[in-house]
Amino acid sequence: MSKNSKRFKILVIGDSCTDVYVFGKCERLSPESPVPILKVSKTESRPGMAANVVKNLEGLGHEVDIISNKERIEKKRLVDEDYFHHLLRVDTEPFLDEIDLGIFKNLEKYKMYDAFVISDYCKGFLTHKKCEKLVDKILSLEKPIFVDSKKEDISCFKGCIIKINETEFRKSFNEPENCEMIVTLGKRGAMWRGNVFPSHTSEIDKLFEKSNNQSLRMANVCGAGDTFFSGLIDKYLQTKGDVKSSIEFANRCASICIDNFGTYSIKRRDIKF
Predict the structure, then answer these.
(1) Using CA atoms, how far apart are residues 223 and 198, in angstroms rounded to an integer?
(2) Would you list the DSSP string of 179-204?
(3) Which pTM was predicted?
(4) Burial class (CB in 10 A: 0-12, 13-18, 19+), 40
(5) SS3 227
(6) CATH superfamily placement of domain 9-17+47-71+94-267
């Protein structure tokens, strides 16, 4: 934690998964059918979705708790170890029990949090009705609520700071009252109130980069949205609500994620000013 950065206590609410990366090489086709055979060299597991937001916020120096699904969601990616090409993704998504809002019956114990984060991947843990009730409860605590949701009807997030990507924004409807809407634009940066804030690195403009053997290597975008979201939350709290500075910092965080493979959790020491 840097000397100028304050440590906040944050509660993240949302659906989580495990991101599994199976690395290997494809050097021949199967004799049974014309598909490549992956010879596995290693397997890595990392927290994903809401759990990735937690890891990023912890990496930025905050104390973070999480309320999430108990069921295991797994996203398994088969990856060429030389060029980081994703060969196949296999998702295992069991039916999720909805969040039990009874845990918020005694709101007094939640006053210790400086901010609340809803990371909603629409896997069933947070329904529209539950989100509406949850937001109403948290608003009574007069603490900021940050939202990253895949929902198309976003009317349940009134009074929140909403991060949404460009594709989701085009599909969304019923924009809620009294909200701040930050739209991420991929390699172009992010938009807020009609103003575009460009990304901080030219590397984002490259979908490919040259490796040592001059072959094309895929740039990584896994988890970049979560990293942007975490950077936005951090800077918003540090600056007491300066959205412009928060977006600029979030862009910087996302660019660092893209320079690393997989769902990379940012650390404050990664950020150079």
Answers:
(1) 19
(2) -EEEEE-GGG-EEETTEEE--S-GGG
(3) 0.89
(4) exposed
(5) helix
(6) Ribokinase (3.40.1190.20)
